[in-house]
Amino acid sequence: MDLKLAGKVVLITGSSRGIGLATAKAFVAEGCRIMLSARSAAQLRDAEAALRGAGAAVAAHAGDVGDAADAARLIDATAAVYGGIDVLVNNVGGGGGGARVADSSDDDWRGALERNLIQTVRMMGLALPHMKGRPGAAVINIASISGWTPQLAMSGQYGAAKGADFRHRALGAGVRAMGFGSIPSPRVQSWSRAMAGTATASPIRTISTTTCATVFRWAGSAPPRRLPM
Fold it and tell me: Which of 161, 143, 144, 151 minimizes the C-alpha distance to 202?
């Protein structure tokens, strides 16, 4: 598939594995230039080496985008290597806290909002100056079906933060939010086993990493939708 993305600069947070790495591979297949980012320098090196071995134009920068200084350094590093940013994929996020209000502390809410919402907004603000004037510039925020309806898999604060991710608008770049179900992983499999014995358990909807990559091919040009993927 040729989506006319050859040469575009794509920065993907949390891209040493999982959805982030699958997304990077999808953009590599379109001829994009990639900046990988993750907290684990070792995993990041492995991901970078694998993509470069496949002939991709790829760079990597280790850091924690939950830290404002690290986030700024990541943006600066991307601009220094490639001269700007065409696509920002905010993939970092995570759960935490209890499933009920009674089980969650103020710190649980602050942590979930920081991991899933505040750092996403921060990354958009930092990236936008490097995206202005670049045709087709876009932001893709990885949200969750938990942002549409309460899910057993995560906490209420996670759903609230991901719901906010669906509602971002940013000047100078198109913003899309992608809502995924559960992705096969050791964490999901462990949760599935734990839920199997509860009366309220429901089947986990899963999609493969290959499907994840295909979804991002669609995301660049499709109109906003509110359909489960």
Answer: 151
Sheet of strand 174-180: strand arrangement: 57-62, 33-38, 9-12, 87-90, 138-144, 174-180
For residue range 125-136, list pLDDT tens digits in order: 999 999 999 998
Question: For residue 222, what are the contacts with CB-CB under 8 A and spacing of at least 6?
Answer: 176
Query: 225 in a domain, yes or no?
Result: no
Catalytic residue among 27, 82, 109, 158: 158
Average pLDDT, the chain: 76
Confidence band of 104 (pLDDT split at 50, 70, 90)? confident
Q: How far apart are CA 37 and CA 58, in angstroms?
A: 11
Q: Is 209:22 a contact under the CB 8 Å cutoff?
A: yes
Cα distances (angstroms) measured from residue 138 to each of 2, 171, 177, 183? 18, 10, 11, 24
What's the DSSP call for residue 67? S
**Is 158 noted as a catalytic residue in this protein?**
yes
- Parallel, antiparallel or unpaired: strands 57-62 and 174-180: unpaired
Residue at 163 is within a domain: yes
Domain that holds residue 157: 9-182+209-219
pTM exceeds cut of 0.90 = no
Nearest to 123 by CA among 71, 176, 178: 71
Residue 174 lies in a domain: yes
**48 DSSP β-pair partners:** none
Beta bridge partners of 142: 178
